[in-house]
């Protein structure tokens, strides 16, 4: 079947993935493979811009790749690779930087946020982050980039940068990527308040054992107004209920929705049911994960093979780029 175009997405290597990563990105990556030619990149160079994500890069890259593959990313169809394995991206980043007004970078909300978060480490890479991200996307002539709202300014930046480059060098070498704003649910952590994240330790790992998963689920915060078992609850403000909507059957969701409001079901029972459904849902994932992780070399083989295919695409684009810029051959 003819594909609709090429999708590109990148994610920083954060190690074992959690439910937030799964519902927010991975699930969508898997699905996009049906309609698009997909290029999925573990952006280890971007990870170097912050100190925490610089540690354990190899292990974190490996663990994330295992989760991607176990979740259904198919390396035969898609290109799965590590950013630093394609050095051309650094070259393109430099060329793109020449058409990037400095003020545009300093104005980006993501940059300002980082300046606030890490005042002791406002490095040049942080400023150039969106330029490198643009290079990632255009190096592979990607048509579509699935991103959440937090990345929308970066994608707009990428589009403007492509236009500036093509105009400056009178070329059509670079393709302006479309943003695919997928319905990405904001997955809250077990605290029920903040976005699920490893750094907040409010996450549930996909690779956790059923027992560990159960324990995490039982720690989940429910409707804070519901103090006693006999109090009626409000599922509309309960994070456990939001999760039921994703992982439980329609009948069960309906039952919980009404029984919670009348105190027919308590939070403990509600969470037990969720843990059970989640574990059942993750069973095939865990089996595949175990099988993949029993042969770590094959994971690196996949990434190296992906790198090879990515470099071949990169070489073609860079040839056009250098010609357009009239760099000496
Ligand atoms: N900026 C993205 C993030 O912080 C990661 C990323 C790097 C990316 N390069 C990309 C995303 C290219 C989409 C396309 O999550």
Describe this protein's structure.
With 329 residues, this protein is mainly α. It folds into two domains: 213 residues, Rossmann fold; 81 residues, Tyrosyl-Transfer RNA Synthetase (Orthogonal Bundle), CATH 1.10.240. The protein is built from 13 helices and five strands. The strands form two sheets. It has a three-stranded parallel sheet with strand order 1-2-3, sandwiched between helices. The mean pLDDT is 96. The structure holds tryptophan. The site of tryptophan (TRP) has 14 residues, from β1 and α7. The site of tryptophan has 14 residues, from β1 and α7.
Short summary:
The protein has 329 residues and is mainly alpha-helical.
Order of helix and strand elements from N to C terminus: EHEHHEHHHHEHEHHHHH
C-alpha Rg (nearest Å): 22 Å
Beta-strand residue fraction:
5-15%
Looking at CATH, the homologous superfamily of the largest domain is HUPs
Helices and strands in order:
Blueprint: E1 6-11, H1 19-32, E2 37-42, H2 44-47, H3 57-71, E3 79-82, H4 88-97, H5 102-107, H6 109-117, H7 124-139, E4 144-146, H8 152-168, E5 178-180, H9 210-218, H10 239-247, H11 250-261, H12 267-293, H13 296-324
Parallel strand pairs: 1-2, 2-3, 4-5
Helix pairs in contact: 3-12, 4-7, 7-8, 9-12, 10-12
Tryptophan is lined by residues 8-12, 43, 46, 133, 136-137, 145, 147, 151, 154.
């Amino acid at each position: 079947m003819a594909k609709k175009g090429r999708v590109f997405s990148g994610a920083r290597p954060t190690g074992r993935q959690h439910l937030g990563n799964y519902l927010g990105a991975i699930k969508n990556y898997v699905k996009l493979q049906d309609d698009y030619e997909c290029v999925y990149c573990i952006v280890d160079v971007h990870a170097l811009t912050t100190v925490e994500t610089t540690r354990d890069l190899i292990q974190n890259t490996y663990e994330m790749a295992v989760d991607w593959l176990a979740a259904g990313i198919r390396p035969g169809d898609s290109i799965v690779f590590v950013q630093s394995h394609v050095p051309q991206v650094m070259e393109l980043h430099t060329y793109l930087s020449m058409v990037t007004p400095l003020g545009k970078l300093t104005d980006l909300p993501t940059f300002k946020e980082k300046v606030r978060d890490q005042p002791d480490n406002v490095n040049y890479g942080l400023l150039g982050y969106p330029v490198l991200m643009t290079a990632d996307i255009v190096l592979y002539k990607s048509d579509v980039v699935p991103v959440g709202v937090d990345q929308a300014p970066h994608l707009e930046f990428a589009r403007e940068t492509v236009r500036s480059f093509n105009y400056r060098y009178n070329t059509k070498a670079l393709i302006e990527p479309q943003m695919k704003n997928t319905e990405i649910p904001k997955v809250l952590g077990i605290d029920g308040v903040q976005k699920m994240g490893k750094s907040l330790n409010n996450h549930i790992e996909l690779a956790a054992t059923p027992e560990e998963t159960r324990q995490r689920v039982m720690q989940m915060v429910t409707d804070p107004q519901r103090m006693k078992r006999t109090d009626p609850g409000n599922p509309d403000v309960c994070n456990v209920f939001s999760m039921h909507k994703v992982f439980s059957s329609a009948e069960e969701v309906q039952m919980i929705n009404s029984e919670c409001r009348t105190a027919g079901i308590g939070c403990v029972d509600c969470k037990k049911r969720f843990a059970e459904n989640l574990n059942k849902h993750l069973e095939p994932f865990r089996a595949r994960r175990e099988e993949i992780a029993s042969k770590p070399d094959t994971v690196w083989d996949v990434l190296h093979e992906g790198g090879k295919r990515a470099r071949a695409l990169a070489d073609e684009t860079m040839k056009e780029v250098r010609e357009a810029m009239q760099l000496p051959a």
